[in-house]
Known about the structure:
By secondary structure, this protein is an alpha/beta fold. The protein has seven helices and eight strands; from the N terminus they run E-E-E-H-E-H-E-H-E-H-E-H-E-H-H. The chain has an eight-stranded mixed beta sheet with strand order 1-2-6-5-4-3-7-8, sandwiched between helices. Helix 5 links the parallel strand 7 (about 135-140) and strand 8 (about 165). The longest helix has 17 residues, at about 40-55. The two termini are about 30 Å apart. The relative contact order is 0.22.
Amino acid sequence: MTLDVWVHGSEGELSGCGSRGLLTGELTAFFASRQCPGSAIRAAMDWALQQARARQAVISGFHSPLEQSVLKVLIAARSPAVVVLARPLQGARLPPEWTEPLAQGNLAVVSHVTTANRLTRQLADARNALAAQLAQKIVVAHVSSGGSLASLLQRWREDGRQVDLLLNCQTATEQGAGGAAFADAGLISQIGL
Length: 193
């Protein structure tokens, strides 16, 4: 896929491809830890379906398994999404399933990283911080205790950002961190779009 790359911002702080207009609308950032209990997975899939029906644009790194499942729902529903990469956009090999949504204007892929490095916690945190910065709202499905997302969540709250939790963190932690995220055909068929 050949990328038609554009630059966003007066300082050129972001490069991107796809629908540049998605960055000027209202964005909701979505995050989930790598391991989530089943209750968080169900809540996130329900939330993703609501966002798809409302055509609410969602921004995220879409890196954790649950975040990836949410992206699959949004793409299947042709709902707007913005993917933030933790690597440079130039030379990036994007998944083939992103080709159609990029061409249709339902997807944008952005990055502020200019040099290729191995994914580190610092790059992942910077990617998530950028997604939160670009969003008007932040939604978190599940936060693993002591993880990097927990640190970011605390920082966002200290900065006065409203963070909506799909589940009560205490309840989710007590239920354990098992389960695998997936977007099954049954959920996607419920979209009804």
